[in-house]
Amino acid sequence: MAVPGWMEKAFYAISDFLFEKLPRPAPTPAQLKTTRLISHRGSYDNHRVYENTLAAFDRVMATGIWGIEFDLRWTADRQPVVFHDADLTRLFAEKTSIGGLSLKAVKARFPMIPTLAEVIQRYGGRMHLMVEIKPHVLPGRHLNEVLSELFSPLQPVTDFHLLSLSPQLFSAVTALPREAMIPIAETNASAVSDLVLQKGYGGMAGHYLLIQNAALKKLTRHHLPVGTGFINSRNCLHREITRGVTWLFSDRAIELQRLISVPRSVK
Hints:
Blueprint: H1 5-21, H2 29-34, E1 36-40, H3 54-61, E2 67-74, E3 80-82, H4 89-92, H5 103-109, H6 116-123, E4 128-133, H7 140-151, E5 160-164, E6 181-185, H8 189-199, E7 204-207, H9 213-220, E8 226-229, H10 234-242, E9 247-250, H11 253-260
Parallel strand pairs: 1-2, 1-9, 2-4, 4-5, 5-6, 6-7, 7-8, 8-9
Antiparallel strand pairs: 2-3
């Protein structure tokens, strides 16, 4: 039986509260140097600045944060746009689905929603791009032609990764190497870590409570990175860095960025 959304949110909120209060040893300068902070959907309030928009990402880029995470969906005319939800209800109080609108209609009615091309052009090579692909119904040929063309200026793994809660979606993506693909674990971190090794994926991500040390160590032994979210406090940040997590996804990345900056005296 699936856990109700409100119960899951309450569980994570309580966990965040507890982990924020529990003191953790400070990471070493060497550990801080290898930490990669990733802003989850940019810096936004969903009133003046909306998530997954150029304005939200611009705020992040100005601070020198290592990477941004954003979501990929497709319009009715098979154009990739950066938006999280399947429809526009939560952000814009409209029940229309992104997949039911053409790109022209999206831009006319919701001009702040960027295309994938706009995001890559503006931030590619300047910040690491963590692109979460959402479920879609697209011919594999079209999917690969578009992704191959748009990501061609960038280097997989070095400049970007694809993320997904449904690793089966990766099977349709043949234009990009498996090393650039990162499954997101939920309550199945052990199974997903095995899948990463079997399929040759580039690492794993998931909630910090759900990726236990056994799965983390399994991948780090193979020199594969692991990312956890959502790291929104100093103590949780210290916990994840000291246990060997490489990528830290946060809704408060700008506030946390100064905590991972290595002092100038450290070489």
